[in-house]
Amino acid sequence: MKRIVRIAIAVVIFIGGLFVAAGLMKLRKTPEPSNPPKPVHEVELVTARRLDLKVMIPSQGTVEPATVTRAAAEVEGTVIAVSPDYEVGGNFKTGEVLLEIDPSDYKAALAQAEASLADAKLQVVQEEMRAEQAERDWERIARPGQTPNDLVRRIPQLAAARAKVDAMQAAVDRAMRDLERTKLHAPYDGRIRQKLVDLGTRVGKATPLAEFYGTDILEVRLPVPRQDAAFFNLRGQEITLTESGGTDRSWKAVVDRTEGEIQRANRSIIVVARIDGKMKDAPLPGQFVHTEIEGLTIDHVVRVPRRAFVKSDRVMVVGDGHTVTTRQVKVVRTEKDDVLVSEGIEDGEQLCVTALTAVIEGMEVKVVSRDGKAVSPESSEQ
Question: Which of 25, 88, 155, 297 has its CA 20 to 30 A from that of 179?
């Protein structure tokens, strides 16, 4: 009996559950289909303008003297005197004696050469007298019609004596040069960079004595990219050199030349500018400077920010419907932050300068800024 009751209760509960489930099914609402808004990227635009632009080529370099000399001894001996200016950083004038090597041996050599020259000149005079005497003797003893030969007339002996005079004169000249070489004369106005010997130093031929440089003309080597060579208009151009850091002093320089070859290390071309070292407050060698070299004018080009490029030759253009397309362009020159474009962009077109993770042709964007100015939502939707 109890078993029948339990089965009846289970059946009632089951049937009741079915009725409740049916009621809940009737109460359920069918969800309406949703259309979520498409994600729209916010972008900044710049307006393309075609202009005639003068190329400015930035560069930097170190000031160095145009003339550097490493002087070496031309004679041997002991240094017996030095100039007060013979110190590192010492300034000297053209012709100043910077140091002197003991000249005693060279004075003696000069005296000996002069004595030998005097003896050779005496021999010439004697030979001339002997030649005259030989002519007279021949006239006295010769038979009619006989002609004396050169040996009888002492012509070879006289020629040898005269040649010996020339040789002795050359020896005197050499001895005088050696004596003069005992003094190191400054070849130009300059400054001592390195002092290599001092008082009492024994030097031989070719021993380095000092390194110095001219102060009249300074130079700076300015590397520029090889591709900028097409925009050069250099020789005689005046440029302004500015020091890096410090008081931002500046100096005028004149472009003198290029070094005429491409650097193997970085594929650049070296432009050399010259500075008047005699000007007031001239830069010192070793001064680091930077400048801009004025190049040629490029007609009818657009200056495009690098951010507008998705590839090396493709830019992002935003049309009237706020859709992005990419377009191939012709690049004329690449600068630090901008690229000069000659073809592929029309005047007044809008360029996207916002970096997009993925650019899909025809994708919609929301303009939030144009030419650096904020755009209102109403105008951005127009």
Answer: 88
pLDDT digits (tens, 9 = 90+) for 62-113: 999 999 999 999 999 999 999 999 999 999 999 999 999 999 999 999 999 9
Domains (range + CATH), the chain = 42-54+299-368 (2.40.420.20), 57-66+214-298 (2.40.30.170), 69-213 (2.40.50.100)
List the end-to-end C-alpha distance of the chain, in Å, as a whole number.
84
Helices (H), the chain: 2-27, 104-141, 155-180, 377-380
| Residue range 122-146, pLDDT digits in tens | 999 998 898 888 888 787 887 777 7
Whole-structure pTM value:
0.72
Strand order in the sheet with 91-92: 68-72, 208-214, 190-195, 91-92
Q: What six digits make up the tokens of 195?
A: 């002092």
The DSSP result for 307-347, as a single string, is: GGEEETTEEEEE-TTSEEEEEE-EEEEE-SSEEEEEES--T
